[in-house]
Amino acid sequence: MTKKIYEALQRASSYLQEHGREEGIARLLMQHVLGYSHAKLLSEMREEMPEDKFSTFWSMVEEHIEGKPVQYIIGYEWFYGRQFEVDESVLIPRPETEELVLETLNRMKRIWPDGGSLKLADIGTGSGAIAVTMKLEAPNLKVTATDISEEAIETARKNADQLQADIDFLKGNLNEPLAGQSWDIVLSNPPYISYEEAETLSDVVVDHEPHSALFAEEEGLILYRQLAEQLPALLNRPGLIGVEIGYSQGEAVKGFFERTFPAAQVEVIQDINGKNRMVFCEIK
DSSP for the chain? Predict the structure, then answer.
């Protein structure tokens, strides 16, 4: 039996809500299956939905009921106004990370007012969202992105190719692939959730997103400590380091960088929701 689009949407929204999922996901899946913008979907609500499209739509709803993130179902997420391919090899880009990019761009203009050809490294690039966005927003940058996961690098490379961002990719842990060179800017959104916090997270996150991109030892702080210890040998003067953090980690991460860069200006920056979300270290 054929259904009108609005009927299928109502049924899916109720079904998602009954199973503890966000009902608004139904609209996102519907737009994806039909290839419609939000405005077009609204204008076509009373049209009949083809049976094959409904079947595809409903199977996606069922996947999300089972816990699969909608971004992995449709295969992409938006970041800084651009569409990035995502799969279960990479963390889904978050809006908070857009603020790390914006803050970095603003600081670059102040530290290097004349611009120039600066070298930037994105450590633990995942989908490549930070590296690709920085290159496209500041084309004069020479950008290198690293990750420990070969699968993540392949996904990031696809995104760079699709968005026409010229980026070098290196496989390796933390700063290892960057050794032997000097850098003006280093950015990272490393794993920062403690293993003890796993039980507080949604099954949508824990059961599907890569644990290597989520969890870290030493209460989620080990990678910040290692970054702070290793970066002094790699940073030019002036130099800039920016990292995303968990909201309760600001003072600890700030302390790591203050100890290894005693003359630097180190700041904890809040996100749009008023939570500590970034630490920036400016080396004079």
Answer: --EEHHHHHHHHHHHHHHTTS-TTHHHHHHHHHHT--HHHHHHTTTSEEPHHHHHHHHHHHHHHHTT--HHHHHTEEEETTEEEE--TTSPPP-HHHHHHHHHHHHHHHHH-TT----EEEEES-TTSHHHHHHHHHSTT-EEEEEES-HHHHHHHHHHHHHTT--EEEEESSTTGGGTTS-EEEEEE----B-GGGGGGS-HHHHTTS-GGGTB-HHHHTHHHHHHHHHGGGTEEEEEEEEEE--TT-HHHHHHHHHHHSTTSEEEEEE-TTS-EEEEEEEE-
Binding region for substrate: 189-192
Beta pairing partners, 48? 4
User: In the structure encoding, which two tokens stand for residue 50, read together?
Assistant: 């083809």
Annotated binding-site positions for S-adenosyl-L-methionine: 124-128, 147, 189
How many whole angstroms separate alpha carbon 10 and alpha carbon 67? 20
Look-up of token digits 């800039």: 240
227-240 pLDDT, tens digit each: 999 999 999 999 99
The candidate with the shortest Cα–Cα distance to 135, out of 114, 156, 151, is 156
Is pTM beyond 0.85 here? yes
Mark the binding-site residues, compressed into ranges: 124-128, 147, 189-192
One-letter amino acid identity for 150?
A: E
What is the CATH architecture assignment of 88-283? 3-Layer(aba) Sandwich (3.40)
User: pLDDT tens across 64-112, in order?
Assistant: 998 899 999 999 999 999 999 999 889 889 899 999 999 999 999 999 9
Domain boundaries, the chain: 3-66, 88-283
